[in-house]
Amino acid sequence: LKVLWLTASQPCSIVDVEFLPVYHPSLEESRNPTLYANNVQRVMAQALGIPATECEFVGSLPVIVVGRLKVALEPRLWELGKVLRKAGLSPGCVDTGAEPGRSRMISQEEFARQLQLSDPQTVAGAFSYFQQDAQGLVDFRDVALALAALDGGRSLDELTRLAFELFAEEQVEGPGRLLYREGFSTILHLLLGSPRPAAATLHAELCQAGPHQGLSLCQFQDFSLHDPLHGKLFSTYLRPSPKLQASTPGGRMALANGTVPAPKQKGD
């Protein structure tokens, strides 16, 4: 209302309207809305004479490319944490009891009992953060890992070790337990908000150097803790959000992935 009043009280208000060029999608873009949206973004930036943001969309999810991985601008894990804290739940006080290497599918009702949540709206909201199967059930290992990450009481070494133990599979013959594509994709989707196809592609690349189609604990932690780029990504996303929301020395706000958005041009 204040803006409307200040505008209406001016003797003369000048409004610039700029029409962007019409963009006709190609046949490939017609079949791929994500490709179409990304290409339109680049054309708009070029027409306006401003740099295109590094953000792109995977479906409706805004992501940014970091190294060989796509990660969410804001991890949904933080949103889940806000929902649980609002309900008065401390993630570290929940006894998850998830069995390593073996899935246990639970219903929304069992999810509510396990987390001691009584408000139906809170239960439905928290439950929706996890991938559900055709019967509407979620893997309790997903819940256990999310709660462990939100607890904040574990070091990154402990958290990545727990993630490996939950989703790695025992080998009948071979070097013990290995983390395969599905488990790797689930971990990155839960902790970093990475789209599963992008995580699966990265897993295949990481396995190329070895004789197996899975990652050992050492290989997984080399990637998540010691890789120059991706290690920083894990440490940034899995630290408490208030630390990340602090302003940078230059006064600009840092994104969830630790990067700083480019300053807006005058008049944007």
TrEMBL record:
Protein name listed in UniProt: Lysophospholipid acyltransferase LPCAT4
Organism: Neovison vison
GO function terms (MF aspect): 1-acylglycerophosphocholine O-acyltransferase activity; lysophosphatidic acid acyltransferase activity
Domain of life: Eukaryota
Region of interest (Disordered), ranges: 244-268
Residue ranges of coiled coil: none
Keywords: Acyltransferase, Lipid metabolism, Membrane, Transferase, Transmembrane, Transmembrane helix
Gene Ontology biological process terms, A to Z: phosphatidylcholine acyl-chain remodeling
GO cellular component: endoplasmic reticulum
